[in-house]
Amino acid sequence: MKDKLAFSSKEQTQILFRLLSYLKPHKKAVVLALFLLMLTVIGDVVGPYLIGIFLDEHVAKNQFDLKPILYLAVSYFIIQILNVVISYIQLVKFQEIALKVIQQLRIDVFSKIHGLGMRYFDETPAGSIVSRATNDTEAIKELFVSVLSSFVQAAFLIVGVYIAMFLLNPLLALYALVLLPLIFLVIYLYRKYSSVVFMTMREKLSQLNAKLAESLSGMGIIQTFRQEQRFSDEFDQINEEHYVAMMNNIKLNSLLLRPVIDLIFFSAIVIILTYFGMTSFNTAIEVGVVYVFITYINRFFEPINNVMERLAFYQQAIVAASRVFDLLDDEEVEPKQKESDLTIRDGLIEFKDVTFSYNGKTNVLKNISFTVKPGETVALVGHTGSGKSSIINLLMRFYEFEEGDILIDGKSIKSYGKNEIRSKLGLVLQDPFLFYGTIASNIRLLDANLTAEHVVEAAKFVQADKFIEQLPNQYEQKVSERGSTFSSGQRQLVAFARTIATNPKILVLDEATASIDTETEVAIQSSLEKMRKGRTTIAIAHRLSTIQDAEQILVLHQGEIVERGTHQELLAQKGLYHKMYLLQNGIVE
């Protein structure tokens, strides 16, 4: 679902109620916080009333009996102290609830990200995803921290103040009630126009994060090709658009928040003073009543001002929540696997008339059929874009296919559990990814079944132990982000060790030796031969010299298998494979 530029009141309400549903696990804490909030409101209403009694019963009548005055003073003092203590407790409680809600929301977002299909990451910039998981969830926090408590406090205070005013002077209270429609009109206008501004702000912030993330990940290429100025100009443009959106927000807040409400407040004061002024011509006016009414009007508008100021946070939270919920509701999930007890025992792989498209329009694989017997090695070769990696992506269940089927040991790959697929298929990519941590943690990947001995054994098996043992801390050597301090060959060797440590039944090599120098490649060929023994292996290779011993070689062209056979059989056919072989060996016919 794409970002919208505006939300209707109904949509905003739906988003709000969905956010409030995160409060369900904290019902008791919410009830306690609201009860404490109500107590502070009662204190705010009773305090001015006690002062009004003092003015009318003692100051106006010039009666200063110590006992009743002391009683009023002590009561007022106790109420104020209790208000301070209770306010502190309820503020802490609301903060605690808010942090727990955001904590759960971020867990949901992080879990959802790991369950999204590869198509989502193909279409969405990484910076935009990071922005939703961090900036947007942080904006939502304000809804629970200050907005809801302010709204509830305002509701309690408005009701309490109006009840008190009606008890003092019903007619004047009705006059003051006329101002409420004006306040609601301002709130309606603000909500209507601010949602557009806030959505633009969030989108521009997301683009800023995406551009920054892209620049950081591609800094080497940027500097190599002297693209610093171009990226700087692009960043400046997005930054300027974000600035304009922020200024539009400031202008809207400056007009419809405090200034307009202050104007209505001054109008209310004028109404009250006019009323008492007109009334004073016919009857005596109690000073305490005037004071109480003025104070109540001030107390009435104080929470409204707070609400209006926090409407900005409310709108930001609603817009941010819509972006987060778009991610949580995204249907581009990882291909689902049935809960199954089926196990992969032999490693027999069969592709049966598999047709696949990434975008639903152009087929990148067309009626692919082949069989890999247990223990055999099948190599996939072909020019860039021929469909080699797509076959691997389907076998690893990164994407869902619609036509045909893939069988493992005679059972559809869709009938196996995800854990079984992931544990029995070992994948080594052309560009291995190392996580921040140590060499050992990158080989083990937090697998509790792998001991330190297993890690060392796996490293020795692929001959990665030679460079690891030369490091200062050996297997505990720190690995920076993406393993940038290691060479491509060293990273690839760690990836080999990581894969072999899990003892997979099926081995998938996606141009796994492409990043390794010739000397290292020769050194690990014997290890690869050992790895392939007893394992079904599918290997993508550009260097035809590395797959000459494969039992079967499939030559792909534009998503179809155009040739198949052993190395010698394909050379004898003098087709596409023969041409590729001659080119790689520099032979001109």
Characterization of the model:
The chain has 589 residues and is α/β, with parallel strands linked by helices. The chain folds into 2 domains: 9-328, ABC transporter type 1, transmembrane domain (ABC transporter transmembrane region fold, Up-down Bundle); 349-584, P-loop containing nucleotide triphosphate hydrolases (Rossmann fold, 3-Layer(aba) Sandwich). The chain contains 20 helices and 12 strands. The protein has a 6-stranded mixed sheet, with helices on both faces. A 4-stranded antiparallel sheet has the order 2-1-4-5, with helices on one face. Strand 9, helix 18 and strand 10 form a beta-alpha-beta unit. Helix 3 (66-115) packs antiparallel against helix 5 (126-168). The radius of gyration is 35 Å and the shape is elongated. The two termini are 56 Å apart. The mean pLDDT is 78.
